[in-house]
Amino acid sequence: MGVEKGTTGAAMPVAVVLAAGQGVRMRSDLPKVVHPVGGRAMVCAVVDACLEAGCERVIVVVGYRQEAVRDALSAYGPEVCFAVQAEQLGTGHAVLSARRELEGLAAGTPVFVLCGDGPLIRGETLRTLLARHRSSGASATLATAVLDDPAGYGRVVRDDAGGFREIVEEKAATPEQRAIREVNPSYYCFEAGALLRALDRVRRNPASGEYYVTDVPALLLAEGARVEVIDAVPAEDVLSINTPEQLAEVDRVFRSRAGSRAGAGRGA
Question: Of the residues 25, 99, 201, 252, which is catalytic?
């Protein structure tokens, strides 16, 4: 099944949202993405941002207690469909779980790959990412963030000309790379065919035994494809949610932001 095209003739984007994990540090048997932020399952905010950015369809990859995730998203109807990651073997494996849906896309379709546990994501950030992806003709485009404290995040290594070179996970980074403050918050936009082609070449990480989507941009670059990087993600938007305490902080930020929008609307 092909994807419709917008008024400009460009294929409308599709999103793959990764929502299969448990989140063991949340001290709950619920899937991590079902925990509430702003009164709804946090994954709803990610789906909202995708739709705001013009996505024709959002493919949510489910696994652990998938019924709870499906129920949380039931109100979206046909705009949201699901792919099942039966065994959690990393982010690259998760995206490949949506292969059937992705193989049906028209050539050149932009595909966002996002995490379902990032509810502070903004539709405007995704639109900025998509605009760079389209204007540059890239096979892959990453939106990055610059953090005062980048600890825990993969670092984005650029070449001497400022272009993308690779993503280096913190555990594998040299002291010089750990000093880099530009990080990968997992906001990707890929050309559908290039994404699938590269995912087939991703190898298991020798330490974890998992397949990582972070390997895809460097694989594409090595084959001569264009990979773009844009510093477009506000630092506040990449607050982690791994514990109940962090969930409470993100909920506070989310509600404050929603209150500010509502106040601006009333004053208009």
Answer: 25
CB 225 within 8 A of CB 141: no
Is 255 an active-site residue? no
In the chain, where the domains are located:
14-234
User: What residues contact residue 181 under an 8 Å CB cut-off, 6+ apart?
Assistant: 146, 147, 148, 150
- Strand 14-19 and strand 80-84: the pairing is unpaired
Enter the CATH code of domain 14-234.
3.90.550.10
Q: Residue 112: helix, strand or coil by DSSP?
A: strand
Instruction: Give exposure, 141-161, as e/b (b: 16+ Cβ within 10 Å).
Output: bbbbbebeebeebbbbbeeee
The distance of Cα 133 from the centroid of its chain, to the nearest Å, equals 15
Residue 55 buriedness (CB in 10 A; 0-12 / 13-18 / 19+)? buried
Q: How many CA atoms lie within 13 A of 173 on its CB side?
A: 22
If the chain, 268 residues long, is cut into consecutive pieces of 10 residues, what is the mean pLDDT of each piece? 49 97 86 97 98 98 97 97 96 97 94 98 98 98 97 96 96 96 98 97 94 97 98 95 95 91 53
Are 61 and 98 in contact by the 8 Å Cβ rule? The answer is yes
51: left (phi over 0), alpha (psi -120 to 50) or beta: alpha
Where are the strands (E) in the chain, listed by range?
Answer: 14-19, 36-37, 40-41, 57-62, 80-84, 110-115, 140-146, 155-158, 164-168, 182-191, 227-231
Token pair, residue 158, equals 């650029």
